[in-house]
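On clarity, I found the account of how folds are encoded harder to follow than it need be. What matters is that the chain and its backbone geometry are given together, residue for residue. For the editor and my fellow referees, an illustration may be useful. For illustration, here is how one protein appears when written out as sequence plus structure tokens:

___
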Amino acid sequence: MWYKQKQIFQRVTVKAMLLIIVLVFPLNILAMVNTFQVGHALTQKIQINMQNIAEVYITTLDQRIERADSIIYKMYAEDADTALLLRPDDETTYINSKFRVWYKLFNEHVSSSAADGYFFLLKDTGDLILSVNSVYNSQKSALKEALIIPELTDKPNKWSIWTLDEQKWLIRSVDSKNCFYGTMICLSVIEAEILENISYDNVSADFVEIVSESADGAAGIAYSQRGRVYMQIEVPDSVITSNMPVWYSGGLVLVCLYLGLIPLLYILSQRWLTAPIKRINAAHHHIEQGNPNYRITDKASTLEFQTAYDSFNKMADSNYFLRIENAEKEIKRQEMELENLQLQIRPHFLFNTFNLISNLAQRGEADSIRTLIRYLADYFRYLFHAGQELEPFERELELIQGYMHAAAIRYPEGFVMNYQIDPDVLAIRVPPLLIHNFMENIINHALVKGKTISITLSAMCEEDNVIFQISDNGRGMDQEIAEEINQHNFKRKDGRIHVGIQNAIRRLSYFYGEKTNLQVISYPEKGSAFTITIPYLSKEDKDETVIGK
């Protein structure tokens, strides 16, 4: 009974209904809550930015007001020309003082950025002395007419906002015994600068004396203690919505999509019915096209299609196991061939080494014998450790250096050894004793009696390859022999075979396939240079080797 109930829940129609109940409604609620939270967070962020901008500009305005008040007060209370202007002895003194006062106010614009204008309005004569920043010279006449209106002088000693010639100004008029004097700051320029520094469109930035009720959106408001005005920056909801991230709008779309149950059911039918049938047909097509390793690894969502998947995989396995068995036999054959190649390399070297130890023992050279025995210990340790088919070149280089020290005992003045090794090459993986055998070949065949030859081992990285070069200026070989090696023609006319080089090329081909190359350049009595090119294969690339390809 329980098993039959479990099978019911594996049916397509039952799963579709469960998805509607479990996924659609909870996801709609989560999407709506998340959308609201994102919108609220973005609004708060914009509001904080606008508040910071408003406070920065209000702070700057307060500083300008403080400096402007100080400048105009000093002109009124301490300047000698202002005193003569207010109490002139004669008309000439009055005219000269009037000019000098204007000139001093003009210099304040040049040396200070406190106010955009300063003025003196004389009560007795009605004369107006006005000095404004050169930017507003075109508006000077309109400003003069505006400054003599009664409303301006009716609000003495207070900063207030005035609109003069379609420009918004912050003006303070101080009522003294003989005159009105004051300062002017153009607020319209500051408002334009604020809007230019805000990256949003359709934003308003206004200086007001009374804050109006903000519409929906984000607003930043700051108050000037000295000017007694507010800076109010408003960002409408429409601007905030347009700057929402793309996925925010996508979330709203998903909410609507989740409500479309008919499209959802259609998609589910495609996934649970049509897609599995297509998957089985595609699997049969892979088998027919000669891909016996193809399997259906996807888990079916229904019992019926899972049974069909399992039947297909079992059918394909019967052929696959036969192919695996044949492949394993071929791999073992190649491994045995490789081991035989390595065994062909070692005996000749060991014979020469033991023969040298015997000669040294007869001469009583204990230190040299210890050096050779230490080298042999390293040599055998390397062979036993090299259970892997490829070994880091750094280990082989240490063994090569030990071998050259041992060879120097046998031929103390026979050669000089040079190493030119790129540090990046030390990590690459090479077949064991590959380079070592070339060094041994030089010692056995290239040395010239009575001459000290130079031997160089170089290794460098070039793009995706590693290039080894083993060169000497010793005995060399005929160009005919070198050409036979380059053409991989190892059987010479005299019946002899280049066994060592042939084995090296076969090992390179086994490990690296067509990505390797071996070339030799040689001239009799001038020396030889073997160049080996292999793909870069580091310690980390162990699982990506091309062995057996």
